[in-house]
C-alpha cells in the first residue's frame, strides 16, 4: 500500500511539474536557484524522474529496489530543501511550478504539504527497507544487519 501510495503521489506531482513546464509564465525561464538550469528545465527533468519512478513503482517486481528508489528520491528532495533553507534562497520552492496558482490553498500550505511528502518518502522508504521481512523464517528481522551472518559465525 505504501509503494502504491507513493506512486500515486508521484503521478500527481509529475503531472503538475510537466504541466507547469509547458506553460508560458516568464518565471520558468529564469535560472533555478540551486541547479545549473532554468526553472522550466528543472520541472521537465524532475517531473520526468517522478513519472518514470511512478511507472516503475506500479510495474516493477522488486520491492527492495522500489524502496531504494523511493528513499533516494526522498533524500534528494530533502537535500534540496535543506540547501535552499541554508542559502536563504528567498522564494518558496517552485516544486510544482505554476500549478500552485490554480489551487485554492495558500503558498505556505502547499509548501507544508510538500514537506510532508518529502518526509513520507524518506521516512517510509527507510522504515520499510529496515523492517522488511527477510526470506526463510517469516519473521521480521532487520533488513540491514549490523553484522553479516558469516562474520558473526567467524567470531
Brief synopsis:
By secondary structure, the protein is mainly α. The protein is built from five helices and no strands.
What does this structure look like?
The structure is a single chain. This protein has 155 residues and is an all-alpha fold. Helices cover 62% and strands 0% of the residues. Residues 136-152 have low confidence and may be disordered.
Discrete helix count: 5
What share of the residues lie within helices?
A: 55-70%
Largest sheet: none
- Derived from helix and strand composition plus strand pairing, the structural class reads mainly alpha
Summarize the helices and strands and which ones pair or pack.
Layout: H1 2-21, H2 39-59, H3 63-86, H4 107-131, H5 149-154
Helix pairs in contact: 1-2, 3-4
Task: Supply the key terms.
mainly alpha, 5 helices, globular
Amino acid at each position: 500500500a505504501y509503494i502504491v501510495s507513493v506512486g500515486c503521489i508521484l503521478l500527481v506531482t509529475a503531472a503538475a511539474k510537466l504541466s507547469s513546464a509547458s506553460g508560458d509564465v516568464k518565471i520558468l525561464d529564469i535560472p533555478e536557484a540551486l541547479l545549473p538550469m532554468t526553472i522550466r528545465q528543472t520541472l521537465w527533468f524532475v517531473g520526468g524522474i517522478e513519472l518514470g519512478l511512478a511507472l516503475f513503482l506500479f510495474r516493477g517486481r522488486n520491492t527492495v529496489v522500489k524502496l531504494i528508489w523511493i528513499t533516494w528520491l526522498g533524500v534528494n528532495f530533502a537535500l534540496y530543501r535543506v540547501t535552499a533553507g541554508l542559502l536563504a534562497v528567498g522564494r518558496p520552492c517552485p516544486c510544482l511550478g505554476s500549478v500552485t496558482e490554480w489551487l485554492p490553498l495558500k503558498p505556505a500550505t502547499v509548501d507544508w504539504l510538500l514537506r510532508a511528502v518529502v518526509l513520507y518518502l524518506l521516512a517510509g522508504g527507510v522504515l520499510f527497507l529496515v523492517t522488511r521481512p527477510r526470506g526463510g523464517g517469516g519473521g521480521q528481522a532487520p533488513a540491514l544487519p549490523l553484522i553479516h551472518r558469516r562474520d558473526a559465525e567467524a567470531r
